[in-house]
Structure formats: structure tokens, C-alpha cells
Amino acid sequence: MGSIVRKEIDKASSYRTFLKYSIVGVIVTGVDFAIFSLFLYVLSIPPVPSKVAAFLGAMTVSYGLNRIWTFRSRESLVRRQFPRFLAVSTIGLALSAFFIHLLVVRMFIHPLISNGITSGIVLTWNFLANKYWTFKIRNRRDFRDEAPVKDLSLVIPAYNEEHRIGKTLSENLEFLSKQPYSWEMIVVDDGSQDNTVNIVGSIVKDRPDSVRLLRLPRNRGKGAAVQMGVMNAAGRYVIMADADNATPIEEIGNFLREAREDTILIGSRYVGTSNVERMQSGFRVLIGRLGNLVINLFLLEGIRDTQCGFKMFPLALAKDLFSRQRIHGWGFDMEILTIAQGMGMPIREKGVTWRDVGGSRLRPVRAAVNTFLELVKIKVNVWSGLYE
């Protein structure tokens, strides 16, 4: 029943989009006629250059209205959309010049009638090309029929964490057991070679109703572990957190208070409300800041901290995004956020308390190089349409 209702809603949404596009088309046609008439009759400019001027003016209005109103596209997609819109419009310009020349010069049809015919042809071309290419909304895989069993799923990736996973899980259980909502904690072992599995396993035996252990047969990377946890989650909201509790578990309450069914909420160390209690070394901070700058320049816009390990997703959005994931290393965060931005999913940063916890095996320079290589892979994947 739910899927039938959603299909009707989606159909109604398509009708509304078409209606908006039609209204924009009428406005654009008016702009086109006004500019064409001005140049042709007032300024005495020949038909073809007049049509070029009319086309350019109409194109500008069309792009702005369709991006902002019809398709409600996000600002971050301008770099991808505008070149496509320009290509579609250039072909439309060629069609306009061809048909005006054919109808006015060759067939001696009145210029205004010729312009009307030409506008109809070009508007049809623009509508189809922009709908199915320029402003195409990437299809979301429908996980909405998977009804949540819990209110919250907490996903924790772990690799050789025997020295701190026990403390982290104890803190998490102490906090979660006092909460009024239902929850589950999913620990994903990423092929650990120490005692991590046994430590987590003993906790699972004590709390089999609320703690689960999933295992990857070999070490595949943090991204692979988080992906496995998310795809097995059953909570209405999915929160991913690090095994060292660098962001205290108490932040869950702050996130749930701002939860929305269509919005991704990500923890940030760099927004105004954040509280960094113990800083990393100056070198690590510098590497992190430079990394975020590069990510913002070449991949993601408007997100100041992509690498904080504390993030919350509505269940259906989480499974949709992580089902498209290709990067299994440290760069998976920026990949998931890139896919989300490309699909027009709202992303909000929320300041969190964060502290540097000793014992990290991360090597800043090596991680920076690997992250850059993964950034290049993500960019290629975006260009090739792999995530669509």
C-alpha cells in the first residue's frame, strides 16, 4: 500500500514539475518575443542576429527559473549543470538560426509567425534535453518499504581496537540504556588481527537484543566496514561513530532533537557551536585543514568538515547512498556526501564536542595522499555517471 501511495505522490510531483516548466516556458517565450521584436522592429537589426539576442536573453531567464524554481537544484550542482545547459542551449541556438533562416528567408513566412514556430521547436528540444540530462535528478533506490525496527542504529567500525573498544562500548551502553527510544548498536569488525572480536563478542552475549557484531573476513577499510553496518541497520536513523568515541556518545541526543526524515546531519569541528577539547598536533590540524580546502575546491561545496566520524542519516537515505558507495578507504565520507549533494539531499553541519584520542594508527601524510587519490576517483566516477 505504501509503495502505491508513493507512486501517486511521485506522479503528482511530476505533474507539478511539468506545470512549472510550462509556466517558465510561457515566461521565456514572452521574453524571447519581446527581445526579438525590440531588435528587429525598434533597432532595425536583421532577423538572424535579432533571434540570437532573443535566444541569449531567453536562455538566461530559463536557466535561472528552472534551476531555482522548477527543479529546485542545489547551488553545488551549478558546475555540472551549467555546462550541460549551455550545450543544450547552443544546439537550440543553432536550431533557432536554421529555422528562422529557412522560414523567413527561404519560405517568406512572416517573421513573427516564423519566430513562433521556431520557438515551439526549440522549447520542445530544450524541455526534453534539460529534463532528461541537464536537470536530471538521479534516481533514488527505494528502501522506504523497509520499515524501521528500532528508533536508532549506531554503527561503529573497528579494526584492531582491543585497547579501547571495550571502554567505548561500555560508555555507549551506559548512555543508551537510559534513553526512552529503542536502539541497536552494530559493531563491524574490519578483519582485526587482535582481540577485538572476542571483546565485542563477550558484550554481544550479555546484550544480544541490542548489540550486534558483524565481521569482514579481511581488512578492507573503514568505508567497507561502515557500509556493511549501514546496509544491515534497522533503525529509523543511522548514526556512524568512531571506535574511540572522539565525539562523545552524548551528542546523539543533540542530533536526534534536530532529526529530519529528508536531511543528513554531520558533525563538524569547524562550525561556530563546535567544542574541540583536545586538539590534534599542529601538523595534523594543518593537513586536515588543507585536505578540507582541496575537497571544497574540487569536490564538495559548503561543507567545512567532511572527515568528522560522527554523522546521522535517515534509514532510507543511508541505504540508498551506501548502496552506491565505491570507495572503501578513508575517503568514503567525502564520497557519500558527494553522492548526497549530487542527488539534492539536504546536508547540515552541526557543531560537536570533539577530542583527540591517543592510539590512532593513522599516518597523516599517507592518509592525505590516499585521500587525494580517492578524491580523483570520486571525481572520475561523478563525471562518468557511475553514481547515477
* Average predicted local confidence, pLDDT: 84
What is the number of E strands?
9
Domain count: the total is: 2
| Estimated structural class | alpha/beta
Percent of residues in β-strands? 5-15%
The first-level CATH class of the largest domain is given as Alpha Beta
Oligomer: single chain
Distance between the termini: 27 Å
* Helix content, binned percent: 55-70%
| CATH 4th-level superfamily of the largest domain | Spore Coat Polysaccharide Biosynthesis Protein SpsA, Chain A
The CATH architecture assignment of the largest domain turns out to be Alpha-Beta Complex
Looking at the structure, what is the overall shape? elongated
In a nutshell, what does this entry contain?
By secondary structure, the chain is α/β, with parallel strands linked by helices.
